[in-house]
Every structure is written in structure tokens, then in C-alpha cells.
Amino acid sequence: MAQELLTTFGDALGEVAIVPAGSGIFEIHLDGKLLHSRKRDGGFPETKPIKQMIRDRIDPARGLGHSDR
Length: 69
What we know:
Helix content: 25-40%
Strand content: 5-15%
Order of helices and strands: HEEHH
Number of helices: 3
Number of domains: 1
Distance between the termini: 19 Å
Number of strands: 2
CATH architecture: 3-Layer(aba) Sandwich
Largest sheet: 2 strands, antiparallel
Shape: globular
Oligomer: single chain
């Protein structure tokens, strides 16, 4: 997923970081806001909705190609 985000958003993202944490924790944050939590949202996210959430926050006019369909 990190590679997909970097490919899609390139320089628009300051960084994509993987931070080791406790067992079972998987969270996606953007500018301090929690976009997805495995515990809260029940599982691992699909790439499409994550890319759409990020796009809507950093560049709403950006097209995502096949991810918008």
C-alpha cells in the first residue's frame, strides 16, 4: 500500500512511514488525523477507499484513474 500511495501521490505526500507498534495495530494517519484503524474499522483497508480519502484531503481535484471507477 505504501508503494501504491507514493506512486499515486508522489511529492504531494511528505512521507509514507511504517512504524512498528504492538501486535495487531494497523493505522493510517494523514496530518495527524486517523483515517483508518484496524481495530476501530474492523480489518485491513482496501487500497481504493484509502487513496480516495487521501486525495479528498490533499488534492480533491486530482483524478485517480481506475480507482475512481
